[in-house]
Amino acid sequence: MSSSQEGRVLAVARDDDHRFSKVPVDAITLLAGVGVEGDAHAGATVKHQSRAGREPAPPNLRQVHLIHAELFDELRTMGFDVPPAGLGENVTTRGVDLLGLPRGTRLHLGGEAVVEVTGLRNPCAQINAYMPGLLKAVSPRDAEGNIVRKTGVMSVVLTGGVVRAGDLIRVELPARPWSALERV
């Protein structure tokens, strides 16, 4: 994996309520230590409804959700037409192997914003409510029977800034040894 890997922002989205899909917008503003301005999941502590109810004080490692558009391409071949923001992501990317990044990777989005990848998004049953059968398509099992989580990565905002569709994404890998992404 090369730290010179680059990609593009395909779309950005936010939602001020806890709905499954987010609303595509022209631009989002990332706030350091908080997340996407105006998004229901923004905050220094956990905002995800199922997690906050159990333990409201843990740090929010899920401030910004990114999904690779290549997943949507793959799903389309299986008969699922999922648009950007359809799976609740804030940033839809193209050209970056998000699932192959090590924990702690920094993604420079546009000219200012920097997020740090904290882990994999854990697909939930709401995905089947959105499109029946989709959960199995985005969380298949490998040869050993382990779930392969394909629904993108979660991150925290290190440096705030405005992010728009078309912005360049520059990948900055952490120092070795690398830690594989786990669900957060």
From TrEMBL:
It comes from the Bacteria. This is Molybdenum cofactor biosysynthesis protein. One of its GO terms (molecular function) is catalytic activity. Residues 23-172 form the MOSC domain.
